[in-house]
Amino acid sequence: MSAVAVALGEFGVWTAYRAIGEENAGEAAALAESLGYGAFWLGGSPRLESVAPLLAAGERIAVATGIVNVWQYEPAALAAEYTALARNFDGRLLLGIGIGHPEATSEYAKPLAKMEAFFDGLDAASPPVPRERRCASALAPKMLELSARRGIGAHTYFVPVEHTRWARELLGPDALIATELACVVDTDAERARSTARGYAELYLRLSNYTRSLRRFGFGDSDLADGGSDRLIDAIVPHGSAEEIAATARAHRDAGADHVCLQPVGADGIPRAEWSALAEALIS
Questions:
Q1: Domain that holds residue 126
Q2: How far is it, in rounded angstroms, from Cα 86 to Cα 81?
Q3: Beta strands in 99-174 (DSSP E)
Q4: Would you give the DSSP letter of residue 98?
Q5: What pLDDT, in 10s, does the model give residues 121-145?
Q6: Is-above-0.85 flag for pTM?
Q7: Could you tell me the CATH number of the domain that includes residue 258?
């Protein structure tokens, strides 16, 4: 597997400020670090400067964006924000960049060309964002290839283990694969699947995710009505922390360098879930 300039470790956490509250950023990052996670991924298309309290609260934990949306930034402005943060936290910040979804912006067009141009802008900035400090959100072959060519590799999201295995075969041994894994720490299967479907509902309406799922054998019946049990169990595993840890390890065995866990269904910082998963995976 790949050697990554920013030390992410094998396992991290993934969340967004809309879930935990931006005012709780420092507390959340300090907790994740104390539990032994290697990285804290901030989603929800954040402004890069908003990760500063996460970095400040830790001493070793890496912080990554999952992802900064290219439609919401000019490359030079993003490079300037990166440079300002890197002065104080160099070595712990990974810039995750992504194209977003066609359903989310009226400007969406030619995603590969837009991403290439955005990386060109980061390279042309003064100073540039180093290639070894950036990755890209990617699902399909051409975007995966771009992620490894213009950054250190891919941040994948809402994918089964089969996608991780396929992506590793496609990219070879040197590119980063950092896989998000949503999960529900709940041993009541009916309740847990209901929670998972509430989370999955948005993504099953987004064409880039549904195309990706179809590539791995999920059909119309799997994508309808909030997702079949087969799809939900593959994408958002539920059960005990040990059962979810088995899926996280399966992604690692399939070729992921790093798996970032996103417990869903919790209110605020998922302290109990992060703790239980850390005990199952790290301790």
A1: 11-181+250-271
A2: 9
A3: 134-137, 153-156
A4: E
A5: 999 999 999 999 999 999 999 999 9
A6: yes
A7: 3.20.20.30
